[in-house]
Amino acid sequence: MSVNPDHPAANHQVVLARRPAGPVALDDFRLETAPVPSRGADEVLLRNIFASVSPAARAAMQGPTYRPQLTEGEVIPAGVVAEVVAGPPAGPPPGTLVATLFGGWANYTAVPATAVRELPLDLRGPLVRHLSLYGLNGLTGYFGVVGVARVRAEETVVVSGAAGGVGHVAGQVARLVGARVVGITGSDRKNAVLEKELGFAATVNRHSDSFGDDLRAACPDGVDAYFDTVGGPMLETVLPLMAGHGRVVCCGATAQYDADQPPDRGPRGFPLLAIVKSLRIEGFLVHDFQADWSEALTRLDQWAEGGQLTVLEDVRDGLGSAAAAMVDLMAGNSTGQLAVRVAGL
Amino acid sequence: MSVNPDHPAANHQVVLARRPAGPVALDDFRLETAPVPSRGADEVLLRNIFASVSPAARAAMQGPTYRPQLTEGEVIPAGVVAEVVAGPPAGPPPGTLVATLFGGWANYTAVPATAVRELPLDLRGPLVRHLSLYGLNGLTGYFGVVGVARVRAEETVVVSGAAGGVGHVAGQVARLVGARVVGITGSDRKNAVLEKELGFAATVNRHSDSFGDDLRAACPDGVDAYFDTVGGPMLETVLPLMAGHGRVVCCGATAQYDADQPPDRGPRGFPLLAIVKSLRIEGFLVHDFQADWSEALTRLDQWAEGGQLTVLEDVRDGLGSAAAAMVDLMAGNSTGQLAVRVAGL
Fold first, then answer.
1. Cα(B126)–Cα(B132) distance, rounded to whole angstroms?
2. Is cis: bond before A271, omega within 30 of 0?
3. Cβ atoms < 10 Å from Cβ of A250
4. Domains of chain B, with CATH numbers?
5. CA pair distance A269, A49, nearest whole angstrom
6. Interface check B65 vs A, CB under 8 A
7. ipTM score assigned to the predicted complex
8. B64, B245, B269: residue with CB nearest A266
9. What is the pTM of this model?
10. Does residue A256 sit at the B interface (CB-CB below 8 Å)?
11. Phi then psi for A192, rounded to 5 degrees?
12. Which of A272, A278, A284, A289 to mutate to test the interface with B (most CBs of B within 10 A)?
């Protein structure tokens, strides 16, 4: 393994200091200096530029998800936009800009060469957009609406976590395919952004005492598609509002992640409401739609550059800010794609 | 309205005497004599021959489902095979044999002419088969497997309520499309029938102390499709066993029907497992597949007449036996399609 001599060989990284007991806290993380990781024969060594701060990382602290549970001392997992420092001959050459879901909160990460994809640099906009709109979150929002819910014009679509990295894309994509979109967030300020800048037809604040009634009033014809990023009690609130043959896109359960344990009960009304309303409730991976990525990215680029889709990003500076960013994320104190800039380009 | 003079004008019917307080009991029903119902201008008057005894009727006593909650004094709803006594000029002529989902436990029922379908009498077998295999339950089993779960050869399919009217068809259809089928019932005797006569690869008794372990052992590669007729705690047991991209067909929640109220919680692990396993969880109506009914019925007829699919029926005699049949159904003391013979052909 060789590291580009322009960069120091020291590797700053943020690891799990302890398993969170309840809501995640700064002391659950530790910023440490470690050797640059060794690269296996089939791996690329990456110099990370942007790293995501995502609910998935919090979920991994709670238990197994797509990956085994995160244990103490492990680097916090993250999607990254990075530069290849070194790799196998068949892999992307040094200097190539890539993205991978298997990065982390560190200056350097070694990942299988097959797990990185070269950035499609013909797409326009700032580099961080390859982490947001052109990355996992943007594609998740797009395919959740277009590929899973298969939203049609005139339908009513509800998005929870609607100002989040995935939700704000999902809501706008649903609007752009002709749906009437209702957003749920925990903040009047976020809701104002959604209505005034992102074209949501209506918004509801989940902290309102009249939340359930507000949501029902915002969806007088029922909910044709619910893009669910939060799970938990909100899913229980939405299920009875679903219209016949409605679709629930299970994209995240952030309301359930920031606790010591997953909840010991599921939403009341399930599966009975799925039966009597002929609901389709579906989780998915963006990789299920890999054949359509190129078309999706082209559309997202056109919408964003044409001013029809607004990308919300909240980029914090340096690995030292990552832990606080995670605390903010889980407390609802961030808007759009949350990321840290790990290094300059 | 005119009634065929071959039949008495008195109408015996079974009504809900009181809303069940817990498990359904004989005293919740009342057999009474009433006038033959008046037929509206767009309705047909039916003389019922066979009437189903179904979990859906028990669910309707608990709360609204596809239909409003059943109230005291109302005739117990049922699918029926019936003969048209009278109807509008554009409807099926008197003497036509029809089926409808909107019949009841009564000698005579008036239903919209658009709600009956003429029996496809080219299908072979006894008349009651139009209530079982060629009726709602058979089509539900078929389309749940073929149309919703889209079961493929070599997959592992679990069916709960596997000896029931829907389940025993679903399990055999899954076997016939090449899957390995695991049945769950509450009886070793039923399980023996499933394994020895219906070709299930394995069975599990839900009353066993080791039920969860037994099911896991029966599905060493995970569950690709779960045909769920019971909901409740069993769904909670199956969800963690689902394989990636598994499908859950939400067909019934019988475990939840025979109580005063629906349960106040859903299955633990939902929606988190739907997210991390990319599950598709789906309710449906057989009418969603109406374009394919003819093909389905032909295949079911061929399988049944060819001896590849065994139809289990439990036909009780007379409306006077309907209440006891419902009690048996909810207690697990029936096998296959449960029905009462209301009248001779």
1. 10
2. yes
3. 29
4. 10-132+312-341 (3.90.180.10), 136-287 (3.40.50.720)
5. 45
6. yes
7. 0.93
8. B269
9. 0.94
10. yes
11. -65, -40
12. A272
Are A271 and B275 an interchain contact pair (Cβ–Cβ within 8 Å)? no
Check CB contact under 8 Å for B274 and A256. Answer: no
The burial class, CB within 10 Å (0-12 / 13-18 / 19+), for A276 is buried
User: Is A66–B263 a contact, with Cβ atoms under 8 angstroms apart?
Assistant: no
Distance (Å) from the alpha carbon of B35 to chain A's nearest alpha carbon: 32
Cβ contacts (< 8 Å) between B269 and chain A: which residues?
262, 266
DSSP H helices in A130-238: 136-143, 167-176, 188-197, 211-218, 232-238
Residue identified by tokens 């695991």 is: B182
Tens of pLDDT, residue by residue, chain A (345 residues) = 455 544 556 899 999 999 999 999 999 999 999 999 999 999 999 999 999 999 999 999 999 888 899 999 999 999 999 999 999 999 999 999 999 999 999 999 999 999 999 999 999 999 999 999 999 999 999 999 999 999 999 999 999 999 999 999 999 999 999 999 999 999 999 999 999 999 999 999 999 999 999 999 999 999 999 999 999 899 999 999 999 999 999 999 998 898 888 888 899 999 999 999 999 999 999 999 999 999 999 999 999 999 999 999 999 999 999 999 999 999 999 999 999 999 986
Q: What is the 3-state secondary structure (H, E, C) of B223-291?
A: EEEEEECCCHHHHHHHHHHEEEEEEEEECCCHHHHCCCCCCCCECCCCCHHHHHCCCEEEECCHHHHHH
Q: What is the mean pLDDT of residues B28-34?
A: 97
3-state secondary structure of A339: strand
- Find tokens 């990355």 and name the residue: A135
Q: Do B271 and A279 touch (CB under 8 A)?
A: no
**What is the Cα–Cα distance from B89 to B208, expressed in whole angstroms?**
57
Which chain B residues are within 8 Å of A285, Cβ to Cβ?
278
